[in-house]
Amino acid sequence: MMEESKLTCFQRRYLMDCVKRGGTLPLQVQPMSSKEPELAVPAFSPPACQRSRLAAKPHLRPAKVCQAGDAYVREKFKPQARRDLEKEKQRLQNILATGKDVVECNMNQAQVQTKEEEIPEPDRFEELVNEVQERREFLAEMEALGQGKKYRSIVLTEISQKIREMEIIDKKRSEEVRESMTKDFPSGNKSDPRD
């Protein structure tokens, strides 16, 4: 290693003496002549001492200074307003399902509710009439396309079920009307259509 580092003969002898004595090796060996070996040893020791003092990081503070200041004082917990987790879940579900935020959905729901309040519920009898009409139109379209045989029995069965439900509703309504008519008229003036 000494040959590779191109040390002078004096530097090599000085390093070998340090190894024989069991001392520490100097960090730097200045090129000096062999006439001044006494000056070489003291010249190296002060820089080593200075280096150890400079090795400490200047931005670090001693422990006493840290403890005297507020570095070891823990911040007090300051609770903040809690979020309603259920509302957050609903909001995220709406965003993932519809791609819209809850605020938009709430506004739309409020508008839909006002519209629903304005529009009375459609009568079940009228719904059945519309369903029967839709099935008849569907059957006519399928017959026009040449698929009438395939759907005829299914559609006619559904239509007969809807008509049966309409008859049941009609009976109930007629009985309700009869009962209200008998209540409105006194018992002496019975006008029963069966008589």
Automatic annotation (TrEMBL):
<protein>
    <submittedName>
        <fullName>EVG1 protein</fullName>
    </submittedName>
</protein>
<feature type="compositionally biased region" description="Basic and acidic residues">
    <location>
        <begin position="171"/>
        <end position="182"/>
    </location>
</feature>
<dbReference type="InterPro" id="IPR007914">
    <property type="entry name" value="UPF0193"/>
</dbReference>
<dbReference type="Pfam" id="PF05250">
    <property type="entry name" value="UPF0193"/>
</dbReference>
<feature type="region of interest" description="Disordered">
    <location>
        <begin position="171"/>
        <end position="195"/>
    </location>
</feature>
